[in-house]
Amino acid sequence: MYSKIALSIGGSDSGGGAGIQADLKTFMALNVHGCSAITCITAQNSFEVSCVEAVQKETLISQIDTLFSDFDINALKTGMLLNESIIDTTALKLKSYSIPKIIDPVMVSRTGSKLLEDAAINAYKKLLLPIADIVTPNIFEANLLSNIEIKNKKDIELAAHNIIELGAKAVLIKGGGLKEMQGKDFYFDVTGKSKWFINKFINTKNTHGSGCTLSSAICGYQALGFELIESIERAKAFIERSLEKSYKIGSGPGPLGHYQSL
């Protein structure tokens, strides 16, 4: 059943809704075996992040090296990398692997809260984007990467062009940060191919981890051997089903229902 393997490199969400936890639940729902390399540990629940602590560089390198020394990993994704040192380390290690790389630039939450140290933004642009097969920013992250203040559909398309110029092979900008663009994501790649992915908008406040889940679903489908465009289409459908089954467990936004999305 689990003949393919995917790797998530990112942060741990102690509340279980996003980060590594969301990625592993997504991989399992797709019948893909999930591995993880933890970049940072967070103390969080449904309404706050009270602590974030990065792992040592040597610990991160050891995790990645140990996994690749034994497992035939078919695709990987990155999530929360937190600081310049972790970005440098991750980019250096991933350059040598020719498997699909999905870079989810976890910089700003979909509500606009900054999740990345300022010094790390340039490292993302210079080191990670050039090795990305696809980068999956939300509106706020696309603002930072493209230097465009995105206000509408035209701005999204222009921002995508700017991000491709930074070296990524493809970009998928998630439109959910703009009310009129909810459920709509824009794809653009180095060949000039563009596509709007439009899905049904699920009206729920329980969206914690939706960005992580989308990128890990793309990664999972890539690990299964699907081409990138079909992986995105399938991942978008997976997100739609997961949002329909999302649930509330605390006083803030709840997580997606990954386990009911088979």
UniProtKB/TrEMBL annotation:
Transmembrane segments: none annotated. GO terms for molecular function: ATP binding; hydroxymethylpyrimidine kinase activity; phosphomethylpyrimidine kinase activity. It catalyses: 4-amino-5-hydroxymethyl-2-methylpyrimidine + ATP = 4-amino-2-methyl-5-(phosphooxymethyl)pyrimidine + ADP + H(+); 4-amino-2-methyl-5-(phosphooxymethyl)pyrimidine + ATP = 4-amino-2-methyl-5-(diphosphooxymethyl)pyrimidine + ADP. One of its GO terms (cellular component) is cytosol. The keyword Transferase applies. Residues 13-256 form the Pyridoxamine kinase/Phosphomethylpyrimidine kinase domain. Pathway: Cofactor biosynthesis; thiamine diphosphate biosynthesis; 4-amino-2-methyl-5-diphosphomethylpyrimidine from 5-amino-1-(5-phospho-D-ribosyl)imidazole: step 3/3. It holds the Pfam family Phos_pyr_kin. InterPro entries: HMP/HMP-P_kinase_dom, PM/HMP-P_kinase-1, Ribokinase-like. One of its GO terms (biological process) is thiamine biosynthetic process. Keywords: ATP-binding, Kinase, Nucleotide-binding, Thiamine biosynthesis, Transferase. Its EC number is 2.7.1.49, 2.7.4.7. It comes from the Bacteria. This is Phosphomethylpyrimidine kinase. It comes from Prochlorococcus marinus (strain MIT 9515). The lineage of its organism: Bacteria, Bacillati, Cyanobacteriota, Cyanophyceae, Synechococcales. The gene is thiD.
